[in-house]
Amino acid sequence: MKTGFFYDERCFWHSGTGYAFAIPVGDLVQPLASGGLPEDPETKRRVKNLLNVTGLLNELEVKSGPLATREDLERVHTAKYLDDFKSISDSGGGEVVPFSTTPFTQGGYETASLSSGLVIHALTDVLIGKNKNAYALSRPPGHHCLPDKAMGFCLFANIAIAIKNARSNGLAKKFAVVDWDVHHGNGTEAIFMDDPDVLTISIHQDRCFPPDTGNIEEQGGRDARGANMNIPLPAGSGHLTYLETLNRLVLPKLRSFQPEVILVACGFDASGVDPLSRMICSAKTYSEMTKLLMKTAKEICKDRLVFAHEGGYSEVHVPFCAHAVLQELSGSEIDAGDPLAPIMDCQQPNTEMLEVYSNIISRYKDFFQIE
Ligand SMILES: [Zn+2]
């Protein structure tokens, strides 16, 4: 069985024309030549292009997926949000709520439904055994989106929609989401806060975005204590800190929760050259983290791993990070390397800093009562 790779060219047509960094153009704000959003289609299209030129794409099972249906979307989002979004999308685009960092153009509703559809399809095909694991190149991303509010370039909560679809089709009951996008997965957290059967784990830069969520104290609602785990890391964390975080916090938690499938909210914005964060991960960090999750998935959930693409704003670095993940997932020999690793010094971190990070992880270990 091959790794499923779910993408659709139409996802790259979503844009924020008329906006600059999601701020309406006008007054003192000059239009950007690039089209408007930091969440630029090139960061994703270049992933597909790199897979193409190295030949790795030929080793994957490449598929698209149908759009998420209104029924799929309503399992997560309010009818009012869906109606408002559809109506603005049909009449030229804009934002559902002004200044909410989520502009879209005509047809944005359908593109967002397609992005959710890719994740639904990826999760379904892994759960029914068509693919051993899968990667959805979903765009727009989803992990900040709330049931009634778009946020942070996210228009539909892709992973949550896919989980609720799979559950309603009787494909699985217990799910885990590991969110290593550098920003807090506040949308996924909010949607599953009271659900004891969905473990949500977010590793993020402390108080980066949203600035007021993602604290370790948020551990799940009254009937779901322990089913939410926030791991805020200080700015400057890199390769070894992320691997320590997985080994000492995330993997033990997954083993004790015993999900039937692990989903990864896969942002590449902890990259050392990302413009929207201050971390120093390299392509090797993402490939090592993928390796660790694959080992754990083998132990606890029949290898079932489903990646959904989230943020990542370096047009140059994101493709190499994603290629490294897909090389691991598919077990391929084709290695694209990481042309930026030498300038990030991420393999040999300052030992004093490592001690600081190690102490933080030890404190979290005690807090979460992980053996
Ligand atoms: Zn992000």
Main features:
single chain; 371 residues; alpha/beta; Arginase, Chain A; 8-stranded parallel beta sheet; 12 strands; globular; binds zinc ion
General description of the model:
The protein has one domain: Histone deacetylase domain (Arginase, Chain A). 38% of the residues lie in helices and 13% in strands. The protein has helices at residues 41-54, 70-74, 79-90, 108-127, 158-168, 186-192, 239-257, 283-300, 317-330, 341-344, 351-367, and strands spanning 3-6, 19-20, 23-24, 61-63, 93-94, 104-105, 133-136, 175-179, 198-205, 228-233, 261-266, 305-309. Helix 4 packs across helix 5 (158-168), helix 7 packs parallel to helix 8 (283-300) and helix 8 (283-300) packs parallel to helix 9 (317-330). It is globular. It binds zinc ion (ZN). Residues 181-183, 267, 269, 310-311 line the site of zinc ion.
